[in-house]
Predict the structure.
Amino acid sequence: MNSFSFMKHPHQWKQFIYVFGGTLLILNLLKNNVHIVRNNSDSLPFKSFIHLTNKKPKKGDYTLVDSLWYETKLIKKVVGIAGDRISYTAKGELKVADLIVGSQKTKSKDGRHLTPLKAQIIPEGQVFLYAPHPSSFDSRYEELGLTPIEALQGTAYPVGGGNPNE
């Protein structure tokens, strides 16, 4: 018995071809535009993300960006956008709009010097990227600094565990 013997009429074959072709199209779109990415650092409360490469991130979203400093991709949250004020509190903590992002370190984990970001208004076309861990390498430092919107690589959605508000 032929494994396709259930399709005895031409309309059944036509439906099969449409479904099969549609499935291949969807799989191709997913392959090129949706990835699972892993966060191997302690900077975020999440370890796994679904990464939509073509979805433009907005304030509050996670995104990926290349880091020349660490020669890898970083996953960070967009917490500051054009027009937001970056300032310091009386305690010396860095503040972006109404969010206190914490104090800065003077050296990275591997001993390299870190330069604190200066107080300023975020200019058009730039964003402040952040991760809640006190030792996170993010826009608190000039070595990453404010990031051009064009450098953002889609939107990442946390998968399981962690606190999505961090």
